[in-house]
Amino acid sequence: MTGPKRRDCLDLIKPYVPGKPVEEVERELGLSDVIKLASNENALGPSPLAVQALKGFLERLHFYPDGNCFYLKRALAAKLAVESEQLIVGNGSDELLILLAAAYAGPGDEAVAPYPTFSEYEFAMRMMGGAPCYIPLAGADFTYDLEAMAAAVNERTRLVFICSPNNPTGTIVKRAALERFLDRLPPGILVVLDQAYLEYATDPEHPSGLDWIRQGRPVIALRTFSKIYGLAGLRIGYGIAPAGVIEDLNRVRQPFNVNAAAQAAALAALGDEAHLRASRKLAEESRMQLAAGLAELGFRMVPSQTNFCFVDLRTDSKQVFQALLRRGVIVRTGDIFGYPTHIRVTFGTAAQNERFLEALKEVLSE
Hints:
There is one protein chain. The chain is an alpha/beta fold. The chain folds into two domains: 8-46 and 274-365, Aspartate Aminotransferase, domain 1 (Alpha-Beta Complex), CATH 3.90.1150.10; 48-270, Type I PLP-dependent aspartate aminotransferase-like (Major domain) (Aspartate Aminotransferase, domain 2). 39% of the residues lie in helices and 15% in strands. It is built from 13 helices and twelve strands. It has a seven-stranded mixed beta sheet with strand order 2-8-7-6-5-3-4, sandwiched between helices. The chain has a three-stranded antiparallel beta sheet with strand order 9-12-11, with helices on one face.
C-alpha cells in the first residue's frame, strides 16, 4: 500500500534538534542536579511580575485569546515609539519566520543568509519550496561578509536574513556597515533583522533597525520574550516593520496564534525593568567569568554580545558533550552548526559557570 504523495521539499528539510531537557538527562543517566547550559535560556528565570500575572490569569483560560494582541501591542508601540500597525506578535519569533516565507517566498526563490546562523531560516524557506544562499562568516571572529552577501543577491532573492547578535557565534553586524548594505540592495527584497538577543548587546554600534523601519524601508526586526525576558516556555515573540509588511504577514497569520497566557505574561515582563537590568548584568559578569576561565584552559571564546559563547575546543565536541553530560552539565555541540570542534555554552549563574569550567577541565584532562 502506497502512502500519500509527498512534497519534494520534505527531503530537504532537516528537523530541528533542540537541546537536551534536564528531565531527560536525569532520567537516562540517573542523575540529579543537572544544569542546562545549552538553549540560551535566562538563568534568572522569568520576571516575578510575569509569574504573578500568570497566576492571576488562570481563571480566564476558557476564553479565546485576543487575536490582535491589543494591549501588548499598545505597550510595545509606546516603548518603541512606533505605531501598533507596525507590530505583529507571533508564537515565538519562529512563527514569524514561517509567515515571512509564506508571504514573500515560493518555489525557486532564495534567501541570502550568513553561515553559521539560526537554522530556522532555512527551514522556513524549504517549507515554501525555496532555498537559502549561505555566505560564510569570515575569520576566527565570525565577522559578517556583507560585501559577499550583497554580491549573492540575484533576481531570485526575496529575503535577506541577518541575525545580530548571531546564533550560534554571538557576534554582531555594525550599524554603518548594515546601512551601506541596505543602500546596495535592489528593490523588492525584505531584510529580516533577527534580534532575539538584542537586549544583551552592549556595543553602541549595534543597530536597532527602528530608524530604517520608521522611514518605511524594507526591514523587519524580530524580537522575542524567550531570552532576556525568560518566557521561552510560553512561546511569544514580535516583529516591527513598515505597516505594509505587517499587513502582508497578517494575511497568512492564523487567528488566535498567540495564547492568552503568553500575552498576559509578556505584558507584565515588558514593564519589569529591574529584571531586565539584572539579567543583563548577569550576562556581562558571566561573559567575563567564562572568558577568563576558558583562557586558563587555553581556549578563546568568540567575542560575544549575547548570553552565550561559542568556543573551539580543538577536539570532537560530541565526545566532550557526552563526557560533560555524565557530569550533569548540558551544552550544545558545534557539529549541528557545521563546526564539529566547537561548543556553544549558555551563561548561567556564577556557580553554574564554575561547575561547567571544572567539569570541562576534568573532561579535557582525561
